[in-house]
Amino acid sequence: MHMNLIKRGLLCFVLIIVGVIMGARVPEALAQGGPPAPGGADPAKKEEALPVPLSGFQDEGVFLLYVNEDRIGSFTFKWQPDGTVDAESTLSMAGQTVTQAVRVVPDKEGRWQSIALDTPLGPVTVVREGNVAKSTFKDKTQTIALKPGSALYGDTAMVLFSHSIRLFDKARGGKQTIPLFIIPGAALDVPLELKDSVERTVGGRDLKFNRFVYHLPGVDITLWADEEGKIYLMEIPSQHAAVVREGFEALRKAPEADPLVSQPKFEVRLDRGVGVPMRDGLKLSTDIYRPEGEGRFPVILVRTPYKKEMLEIQGRYYARRGYAFAVQDCRGRFGSPGVWEPFVNEAKDGHDAVEWLAARPWSSGKVGMIGGSYLGWVQWWAARERPPHLVTIIPNVSPPDPFYNIPYEYGAFFLWGAIWWADVVQSEATGDLSGAALGKIFEKKYDKLLRALPVIDLDKSVLGKENPYWRKWIEHSTNDRYWDQANFLDHLKDVRIPVFHQSGWFDGDGIGTKLNYLRMQSHGHPNQKLVLGPWGHTDQSTRMVGDRDMGEEALMDMQRAYLRWFDYWLKGIDNGVTKEPLVNIFVMGTNKWLTGDVYPLRETRFDKWYLSSKGRANTSAGDGRLSLALPSADSVDRYTYDPGDPTPSPNFYVDPDDERGDGKADAKKEVSSEEAGKKVKAFHENLTRSRSDILAYVTEPFTQPYTFAGPVSAVLYASSSARDTDWFMRLVEIDKDGGTFQLAEGKIRARYRNSSRTPEMLTPGKVYQYTLDLWQTGITIPAGHRLRVEVSSASFPIFSRNLNTGGHNEKETKYVKANQVIYHGRRYPSHLLLPAIPEKAR
Question: What φ, ψ does residue 571 adopt, rounded to 5°?
Answer without folding.
Answer: -110, -15
